[in-house]
Amino acid sequence: MPLSLFTSDGSDATASFTSKIDSTYDSYLFIFNSIHPETDAQRFSFNVSTDTGSNYNIAKTTTQFTSYHTEAGGSELAYATADDLGQGTGVQYLTAGVGNGSDECCSGYFRLFNPASTTFSKQFMSRVNHYHKDNIADSIFAAGYISTTSAVDAIQFSFASGEIQAGTIGMFGVQ
């Protein structure tokens, strides 16, 4: 059973987890199931907070790469230079442009390590598969660290624009 479960009712601009992220567990795993955007070609992202969600603006250093295969047969494995953050406080994208067709969505996971530490930065990694707006099966790998020695106590997921129209996100504690 998840510690917390977000289920979209079709009118959610964000999925925020502002409680139960503490020292109880060594890490927290967020599992995304069939997250569907309202607006076509939107990128799914995250940001974190150290003040229970009042501000989502903590610096991150990240890296990202993608592998994809088109319905027409093309494929690629590529480092996504433009999607890296170097001490950036904005959102970190976890996908490329997710389509909003009835058969398009994203699913995957995000793991946050040692968020309650007041000594070290917080590591994270993510893998999200999605049906890209251009009929592409896309798998994005993102990782990095959150550059704060304050405890991270909230996380927020969202699309770049529009609402989360469907899907669930479960938060699990991992020892």
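Above is the first protein from milestone M3; the second protein from the same milestone is given next.
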Amino acid sequence: MNNMLSGKQIALICVVAVLVLAMGFTLGRMGGSDINKTVLERKPVTPIAGDVLTMADWANDYPLQYNSYMLTETSGPKPGNFGGNILFQHSEYQPEMLTNFKGFGFGIDYNDDRGHYWAVIDNKETKRVNPGTKGACTTCKTPYVGVWYDRYGWEYANMSFWELYEEVPEEEPGVGCYMCHDPETMDLRIIQPALLDAGRYLGVDFQKAPVEDMRTYVCAQCHVTYYMDPESFKVIFPWTESVSATRQPGAAEPNLTVENIWKHYERVRGETGIDKFFLSDYKQADSTVDVVKVRHPEFETWSMGVHGKANVACADCHMPYQMEKGEKFSSHWMTSPLRTIDRSCGRCHDKSDEWLLDRVMQIQDNTFQAQRLAGTKIAEAHDAIAAAAETPGVNEAKLAEARELNRKAQFYWDYVAAENSMGFHAPDQIIRTLTQSVQYANDAVIAAYQAGGRLR
């Protein structure tokens, strides 16, 4: 019997070896050690027997999750040029905001957000709140909102901000476990009534979504844009003009583009019914443009980006799995993935951490430059409109056109400026949005010049 291998046998062995090595490399990058698998293993859970609203009672049974959550208190700057939990005024780096938000609270105080731990503290200390501030402004800051809604319904939104917060212990962090987890089963769940309302006109039952989707939907309770009904102060998500969104096979995905969000505001303008009349959050002090303020639309931009389209959940990147004391758990730091590139990005991307960080920074730096360009042009348009309004014999029709153009320009700009990823969630959509904003603002300047007779 010939013990020598034939050429075909040697070739076959080489092919198998290459395939085994390739598979091993791929599994290693995608979580072969079982650290980063998206598949959730069902383990025995411990119900919370104490005060489900306080973090301490959860910490006793889930110390690893609690300790990772508490990192937000002291984590400081992060890699890259944007974000972190350092207090600073956005207007220090974008002075055009002082013009664009003139006449509104954000023109007085626009501190950067510092993360979940700081939610209640920063909410109470911002100069944007005053003795008359309504309870609606507590909606995304504390798990007590679930109790208030159960007790008062939407009436809590029209109650005193300060009286509601008297129920929240001073030492209690902001966003807590109860906001996302059922204390009996630890299942992910929704307590924010605004998201449940939005689901009804999107065609989604967020309470019955599969766990893979809930790992995003619990974040969508708060990381969205919204406005408040001018009479009841009920919190409303402007999604009525988006298509039906479910995860069923063949169903349409949410189409939460800036255009569709804007269409919602145009539809409810002057209407009555579910949304009632809503024109603006404030009038810009000089131009009297009716401005709609955008609030942190992370879910909307994520849904339009490549990660959202690929069903990569918020938790996959912002709460990656880790091992500690022999236990695998999801990090509750809920911070920028740039702090945990190896676990957040490395399971899908085979580039080095340095390459991935550089890629993100390029996207964010480019977005910031475009954002500054749009914001500055909008500020110029406010000034041009104000000057035209003071001109004797001003063309009122053209002046109204200029105001409407700048109203839209500022909404498109703010859709990016208020969003926390600095363009990363959907780079192509974000740059397109800012390009449109610059065009609308430029058209507003031209219309203002025509209204005042400076241009024909």
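Note on the second protein: The first strand starts at residue 227 and ends at 228.
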